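Justification of computing resources. Each target in the renewal requires a structure prediction run like the one illustrated here; the chain below, 254 residues long, is used simply to show the kind of job we budget for.
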Amino acid sequence: MPKIAWIKSYEAAVKSARASKKLLLIDFYTDWCGYCKKLDAEVFPDPKIVQFCGQVVTVKLNAEREGKALAQKYGVSGFPTVLYLDAEGNEWGRMPGFMPASGFIELGSGALKAFKEQPVLEAKLKQSPNNTTLAADLTERFARQDNEAKALWAARLMAKGPKTSKYASAYAALGGLYLKKEKSATARTWFQKALAAATEPRDKAYAHFGLAFCFIGERNAKGARAELNAAIKVPGCPRGIQENANKLLEQIPK
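Resulting structure tokens:
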């Protein structure tokens, strides 16, 4: 019966991914993780999973041993976590926790689709720099991959045209990128742009939520509380944002 060809060295896997122009699938596990063992026993042997994994370079890393530094770099704290990275280290997808085969393939297929189509879209934008809808889409994609240079390039093209509904999520993704870099002042600028461009309740609430995290990073409790309350008060605010905002309000001193 065919099995997944696991590589146990990240460096070797990167070389393979670069040579084959494939995406990396990294399974972060620990010795004590019950769901990691469940993933190994029930999901990875599935013929459909084995077939799917033939499209990527598979690497299995113990997050407390050889994979510890990489897990810390990508903020992996729960197990199992499956990351989809390219050879340059850009993140294309993440499976946080156990999933059955169907969910595993659905999430992974989305990462593969984005990985394969993005070079085509990037070339299209270079040929048609006035396509602001495409520029907004790529701004968000690059920002979520932490690709700052390309995200800013696409954002500059995006800013030259009239605003569309995609602008808010693109600007918010840039805000998230700079939050990861712990550059709260820059992140705040992008979340403010997202708020100004937002037309949908989710986008407005998310922009306020992002601004709250900027203030939390700056230890500005008053500012953080104001933004969290503003997110909650957005008509039609998604339930998930409401719940998370209320939890944070309980933790922030008045």
